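Hi C.,

You asked whether I'd gotten around to modeling the 185-residue construct. I have! Everything is below, sequence then structure, no commentary in between.
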Amino acid sequence: MIQFDFEYYRPQSAQEAVKLFQSLERDGKKPAYFSGGTEHLTLGRLNVIHTNAVIDIKDIPECRTLQFERHHLALGSALTLTEITENGGFPLLSKAAREVADHTARNKITLGGNICGQIFYREAVLPFLLTDSKVLTIGDEGEKRYLIHDVFDQQLRLNKGEILISLLIEERYLHQPFASIKVRQ
């Protein structure tokens, strides 16, 4: 059980979510973005995180992208790890995502949640780092594209209120040979 009350918001677009975040922040609400919810539930039960307002981005169309655009595969941050493994468009990512938690948890854990979370496991980010992928975000300054190496150092470093919209992988990297081995204790 989460030990605190919070307001729940469900914006219809990424721009609306950013504006809502800014408004809630001005009101002193300590807003947090939410997509799969596994981390919020886990850390909320442990009293590690506390927020007064949750902004649910899991159904925002921009965050649900799974398509090719300009020689890149765009994968939305709100796609679940199960959706990514079943799609198979990026086999290295599919293999890495299959190693995260169990199938039931992968139905809830999102790509963005795995990469942006406070929990130190970030298995899904390695394929993007290896393929020099791009990150598409939106914040108070509008949409931005970054090279993942410019914004990821042990965690994704975005500006306050900025949302990870999608990750872009060049088509030439999608079917390269690879090996993936996860070592467990």
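If it helps when you're writing up: The chain has two domains: 7-56, 61-173.

Thanks,
B.
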